[in-house]
Amino acid sequence: MHHYWRAWVLGFVIVAVILAAMLVPPIAQDPAYHRFVDIRAIAGLPNFWDVVSNLGFLLVGVYGLSKLPQLASPVLRPAYLTFCLGVIGVAFGSGYYHFSPSTPTLVWDRLPMAIAFMALFFAVLVDRVPWKGGERLLWPLVIVGVGSVVYWGWSETQGRGDLRPYAVVQFLPLLLMPLMLLLYRGSRRCEPWLWGTFGAYMLAKLTEFYDAAIYQAIGLSGHTIKHLLSAVAVLFAVQALLRLDPARDAVAGEFKDRELAVENPADISSQ
Fold it and tell me: What is the DSSP string of 67-105?
């Protein structure tokens, strides 16, 4: 059983997060979330900078599609396409939301975001965790992501908003992906790009939290900067996905394990 301790760690985190979400009462969308500090209209476009800063997602998504022939792993082609198309969807969905911030329009911001999140999570999962049948999880994960947003949107229309499933879909992969990088062997060429993705995204969330303070300091809102940093995070993710090759690295890992076995025959006899 000690050979599966990594899987137990991941399983414990998954169960802990889901249980924590179930134990807290339903969380409705705070109407104050829609009150952004920079509401300047330029050229007749309301909330100008929060709208146009979403162009970064469009550019990175199109760039990612243009790099499709360079994808190292054919196995990841559906996930890569789903990720890039999801990012392009974020550009339009988030732009639409910031043009007219409200809970109904926020659904269109979060829907493509959940799709992109799940596609990236799937790619890292397949690369890191040696699980038979793991390559079939892309569409179930995407459905879970989409379902969490649809459920939240529906719950808001019923007057009992419940963000908990969406929070799990967004928060849990952010815990699991770094853990998988630390616990499992995988594509080394992609690791710096993935860590860069996580770092840029954390900075983006930080600037979102200090939206007003940053606006007062430099005249550009923290939320606008969040969009730009998130686009950088997505660009890093594209570079990571292009370099992921689970099949090749699995073979390399097998040869490495054989070399270690030859160098340490006593370890084998003791098992």
Answer: TGGG-S-GGGHHHHHHHHHHHHHHHHHHHHHHHS-SHHH
The reply to whether 1 falls in a domain is: no
Q: Is residue 17 part of a domain?
A: no
What was the pLDDT predicted at 246? 78
Q: Which residue has the tokens 């990236």?
A: 120
Confidence at residue 261, expressed as pLDDT on a 0 to 100 scale? 38
Rounded distance between C-alpha atoms, residue 178 and residue 186, angstroms? 12
Number of independent structural domains in the chain: 1
CATH number of the domain encompassing residue 208: 1.20.1070
Q: DSSP 3-state assignment of 125?
A: helix
**pLDDT given for residue 51 in this prediction:** 98
What's the pLDDT score for residue 249? 54
Element (H, E) at 263: helix 246-263
Q: Give the pair of three-digit tokens for residue 6.
A: 């990594």
Check residue 257 and give its pLDDT: 41
* Residues paired with 42 in a beta bridge: 45
19 domain-assigned: no
pLDDT at 271: 41
5, 101, 115, 146 from 9: Cα distances, Å:
6, 40, 25, 26
Residue 122 CB contacts under 8 Å (≥ 6 apart), including other chains: 79, 137, 138, 141, 142
* Paired tokens of 179: 């853990």
Q: Give the domain extent around 243.
A: 27-270
Residue ranges in the chain whose pLDDT is less than 50 = 1, 250-271
Residue 56 maps to a domain: yes
**What predicted TM-score, i.e. pTM, was given to this entire model?**
0.88
